[in-house]
Amino acid sequence: MVHLRSGERSCRRGGGRRCARPEQDWAKIVADAKKEGKLLADDTRAVGGGYLWYFVTYDLLGDDFHKKVAANSPILTRDQRESQRRVARGEYAVYFPFILTDTQSLKGLPVKAIMASEGAPYVLYGNIVLKSPPHPNSAKLYIDFLQSCEAQEIYAREGHGVVLDGVTETLPPDTRRMSEVKLLGTADPDRQNQMLDIAKRIYK
Questions:
Q1: pTM of this prediction?
Q2: How is the chain split into domains, by residue range?
């Protein structure tokens, strides 16, 4: 989804068919009764993007919100790449959720990636050095590189969130909007079984 960003360091420099309309909230995008039969969704009942979206929005918007989404009879799928193109072909009006970085591969298709006004769930990726690695200095150099402006700009150009201030300032507007999206929350592994049981109850 997106990477967690913070402002711990800085590297400032000088110098068709829409999935939904901009600035709509999740309720308008997927819970509106007018969307019945028009929704394609990554499966909320199995660990993945759909489950992450469900987990975070369940905590934020509650059980009733998800019952309204389920009442719209979304088609649940695990074929993420093909789903995006099914919207482009006009089979469905909305596919959700999507991985922000995938929008780069959808350029030229009659679709528009929309980020809900509440923000986007995220997956936090971390880099670690193992205890007593065979080449500790090389590992530390690699970790340091990943936090450099050069590496963070690569992440940002792909639509990922970044951990340095100023990296996104020179990006094209659409890419910058993705990289700077508000972070909505992430899943808690300790609650996974409980939340999957609820998802299976709601989305049948």
A1: 0.81
A2: 26-119+185-202
